[in-house]
Automatic annotation (TrEMBL):
GO terms for cellular component: plasma membrane. Residues 1-26 are annotated as: Disordered. Belongs to the GerABKA family. This is Spore germination protein. Residues 1-16 have a biased composition (Basic residues). Keywords: Membrane, Transmembrane, Transmembrane helix. It comes from Filobacillus milosensis. Its main location: membrane. One of its GO terms (biological process) is spore germination.
Length: 530
């Protein structure tokens, strides 16, 4: 027992030492009055990296100063313009300042005025904050006999331009997508929602990456309980680095053990803006174009932006997505159950055809379906991982060739190829990729239940799945609402999308304070216009 206790203590010490942060590596707490001491401390912390640039210059010919920035993260043109203006300065220091070995306020103010031409300027006395600003792409101006660092916002690294969405195709609507730049993404939202009530709260997560994130919401509309829960969960994150929004998604979601997602992500600004107008909260992470939206209910994963950009009759197509959900989930299981346990349910003519097709097949229906499903999943993954130019062709042609070869070799029946094809096509219908993955995983569980207990096993699986769905919550909101608990008002935009003039309120379970979305047309213009 003592061995395990000592091993546990060693592992804890190892974990504590494995994630040194800026606070742990920085021994200097305050910016010094001595310029050389500050530069030496920066070199000690940042090492001899060749992208750390230190440019010395003089203010008023006799005051030493230095610029410190990271090459590639700071805008070099703005920096060169700033240095040129400072070098051409003819301001004078007073004799008293020279005797006291201190820099005059006039010189400091002049320097700040020149730095303002670069971007936002602020004074920082904490050395840790100075290092953090430099590593974020800002420029630190250090001056002899001045106990603060002037931080100028010079973030100017190369970034991707706004382009069309790559994972969410646009049939009708804005053809623009988020980028990897946080400020670009917030501006895309502000372009669509020109409301003074919109709020953007900034936080930094990651001991090593120091990733900037933004919590975006509309103050007069958002659910304050959901907002407080978002802040609480994000503040509890303690990790060495954040490289993608999936890191945060997994840490703040309600249930890590559930196959169903409780947070939805999108790279489309119009989708995020629509969610904000419903009272939901968006989480933007610097370095990724995928924005998290909370809360996310079961119905949200079947809604597409085009449902709201076309006439209300187009919303009937949403029913097909729910049918595709059950088709992708249950079609192989139903085939296995019927052909294995319930042959009496098959019409006689079809039963004779199925028996003729299965003659000579060496595997039972369950193994046959399992082989085809696993093979198709491998082809699908290969198509995703391969270059885009040939990936789609490999997945489609590969499925056709392997399916035909398997039938000719007598490994599977033609009917099984049709069943797997229907299942695969149905899984492509979902607007949200996360829900498609969940269905693909659960499908194998239902196949096992069908092979073991037949239709009774499928019924048990559906009951357990429904029980699990009803127990889920997304940031305090019931996952199956507006079906459980029942809310008929919110069901106007659930399975069907009612005409827009009837959608006069926001979802009541998400927003219980400011629910009015538009005037009630039935009351204002009469029933004949409804």
């Amino acid at each position: 027992m003592s061995y395990y206790r000592s091993r546990s203590k060693r592992s804890k010490r190892t974990k504590e030492k494995s994630h040194p942060s800026i606070e742990q590596t920085t021994k200097v707490e305050k910016v010094s009055m001595a310029l050389d001491k500050n530069l030496s401390a920066i070199k000690t912390n940042l090492g001899d990296s060749n992208d750390v640039v230190v440019r010395r210059f003089n203010i008023n010919k006799d005051t030493k100063a230095a610029l410190v920035y990271i090459d590639g993260l700071a805008d070099r043109i703005s920096l060169q313009d700033f240095i040129l203006k400072v070098s051409m300065s003819n301001s004078n220091r007073t004799d008293q300042d020279i005797e006291n070995n201190s820099v005059s306020k006039k010189s400091i103010n002049y320097l700040k005025e020149q730095a303002t031409s670069i971007g936002e300027v602020k004074d920082v006395t904490n050395f840790k904050d100075t290092l953090g600003a430099i590593l974020s792409g800002d420029t630190a101006v250090l001056i002899e006999s001045y106990d603060s660092a002037i931080i100028a916002s010079t973030r100017g690294w190369e970034k991707r331009d706004v382009s069309e969405p790559t994972t969410q195709n646009v049939i009708r609507g804005p053809k623009e997508a988020f980028t990897e730049n946080l400020r670009t993404n917030t501006s895309l939202i502000r372009r669509k929602i020109k409301d003074p009530d919109i709020r953007i709260e900034s936080k930094t997560i990651g001991k090593h990456t120091n990733t900037d994130i933004a919590i975006v919401y509309i103050d007069s509309i958002s659910n304050k309980k959901v907002l407080d829960e978002v802040r609480k969960r994000i503040d509890q994150i303690d990790i060495d680095g954040i490289l993608e929004s999936a890191y945060i998604e997994e840490m703040i979601e309600d249930s890590n053990s559930s196959p169903f997602p409780t947070i939805i992500n999108s790279e489309r600004p119009d989708v995020v803006s629509a969610a904000l107008l419903e009272g939901r909260v968006a989480i933007i992470i610097d370095g990724t174009p995928f924005v998290l939206i909370v809360p996310a209910l079961f119905i949200h994963f079947f809604q597409s932006p085009e449902d709201y950009y076309e006439r209300s009759f187009y919303g009937i197509i949403r029913v097909l997505r729910y049918l595709a959900f059950f088709s992708a989930l249950l079609v192989p299981s139903l085939y296995i159950a019927v052909t294995t346990f319930h042959q009496e349910m098959i019409p006689t003519t079809l039963l004779i055809d199925l028996a003729a097709q299965r003659e000579g097949i060496p595997f039972p229906a369950y193994v046959e379906a399992l082989i085809m499903e696993v093979t198709f999943e491998i082809l699908r993954e290969a198509g995703i991982r391969m270059p885009r130019a040939i990936g789609q062709a490999v997945s489609i042609v590969g499925a056709l060739v392997l399916g035909q070869a398997a039938v000719e070799a007598g490994l599977v029946s033609p009917t099984m190829v049709i069943v797997v094809s229907i299942t695969a096509i149905s899984s492509f219908v979902f607007p949200a990729y996360d829900m498609a993955i969940s269905v693909r995983i659960l499908r194998f569980g239902f196949m096992t239940l069908a092979a073991t207990f037949g239709l009774f096993g499928i019924s048990i699986g559906l009951f357990l799945m429904l029980l699990h769905l009803c127990s889920l919550r997304s940031f305090g909101i019931p996952y199956m609402s507006p079906f459980g608990p029942v809310n008929f008002t919110d069901q106007k935009d659930a399975v069907f999308r009612f005409p827009r003039k009837l959608l006069s309120t926001r979802p009541r379970l998400i927003n219980q304070t400011n629910t009015k979305r538009q005037n009630n047309y039935r009351k204002k213009y009469g029933r004949e216009n409804s």
